[in-house]
Structures are given as structure tokens and as C-alpha cells.
Amino acid sequence: MKLIDSHCHLDSESFHGDREAVIERAAAAGVERMLTIGSGDGPPDSVDVAVRLAERFPMLYASIGVHPHDAAKATPETYRRFAELASHPKVVAVGEIGLDYHYDHSPRDVQREVFAEQMRIASDARKPIVIHTREAWKDTVALIRQHWNPTYGGVIHCFSEGPAEAQEALDLGFHISFSGIVTFPKAIGIHDAARLAPPDRLLIETDAPFLAPVPYRGKRNEPAYVVETAKRVAELRGIAPDALAATTVANFERLFLAAQPV
Ligand SMILES: [Zn+2]
Ligand SMILES: [Zn+2]
Q: What structural domains and CATH numbers belong to the chain?
């Protein structure tokens, strides 16, 4: 089975001791490509954290972006560096960007402003966006409608809403990426969303090192475990795991790798 991991944090310090082994285990499990997210601990130190990793490992691609948690750390210099890095051959997306009203690590008005600014950067670079949204669905959608050109596509990562929100995201042209949460028995709304998404809009991810799927729940997550998420989403949709995996590989390639900056 060939797989992708559409969202992981391989720069995380939890991988400092065994990063190469983690990537080798992913490859051995069939994970051919991984998108490592360039949030790190926020700017200024983490602006190119994912790009540096993607330069070292051929199967890694990078995104660039200020996570909503770190929105208060974004400066004009951050945006200037992003605009430069956007043309790097391994940078395939802007993200994760969005709103997180659960933790409120940055003030909400600052989160909204930094989210909008990064949609402008992505739009100028003609790159898809990777959205993080938590307890902020309505504001997230409103800002997307206001600032985003759906031509360039994007993904709602770690989709944690229900079928109505999934439909809203699909109507806005987004892909929906399911994480290990979909393997949790009580995630009923997410299960319904996983059944509803059309095949050409589906992605899967680990969000490693967080949110390990069953049977690794509670442990450090890693890209090799995306196979468990593939199996569960396939089961929910009543198809074979390898068919689901192939679909997500094709979607990953179309969304992130086919888009060329003009
Ligand atoms: Zn996230
Ligand atoms: Zn993430």
C-alpha cells in the first residue's frame, strides 16, 4: 500500500533523537511523501524550519506559515521571508494558518489579521493553504470567503467538525484531511464527514507527533501510523484500504505537487 501523510511536524523536538529512523519507518510502511509543516515554535526562529528538513530528505515537502498560536509573533519581516521562501522548489503550501479559539495563545483579533495576511501571501505565490481551525469555524469560513481565491485550493487539516461543516468546506473548494481522531470510537460527527467527502477531496494525515491513531493512542505519533487512519477511513467508506490510500496519494499530488507558480 502506497500512502501519503499530508500533515506532520517532523521538526518537533520529540523527533530529535530518532528523526531519520522515523522517516525510514514511514518509507518502510509505504508512506512515499510527507508534508512537514513549517510552524515550529513560531517566528523568527521557525520561519524556514520545514524547508531545511525538506532539503535534507527527498520524500519530504514543506509548508511555510505562522500557526494561529504564534500569530502575535508575526512581523513584516516574517512575511517578507515567506514571500521569498514561497518560490523554493520544496515549498508546496502556506500553512498551517487559521484560528484557534480553544487555546487563545494569541489574541483573536491578531489571529484574524495574521490569517488574512498569510492568505494574501499564498494567493500571490499561487500556493494552496493548510487550515488549522479550532472552536472558530464561523470566523474561519468568513475570513476564507473574504480573502481567499479558491482557484489555488487548500485543505482543512485534522478535520474535527461534522458533516455540515464538511459540506461548507467542500463548497469553498477545500480538501478535507482526516487525522488519527477518526479512529476514536466517539468521533461520530467526524465519521459522518469521512463518509460524505467526495473521493477527489480526501486526504489523510498524522499531525505527528500529536494525536496518534488507535492502537497507538496516547503515544508519540509518527508518519508510519497513517496506515491506521487509512484503514479506518476506508472502513467508514466501505472500500478497500489500498483503494483509499491510492485516492489520497493522487489527491496529494494534484493539490500540492501539480500546482506550479507562474
Ligand atoms: Zn493544526
Ligand atoms: Zn499541525
A: 3-257 (3.20.20.140)
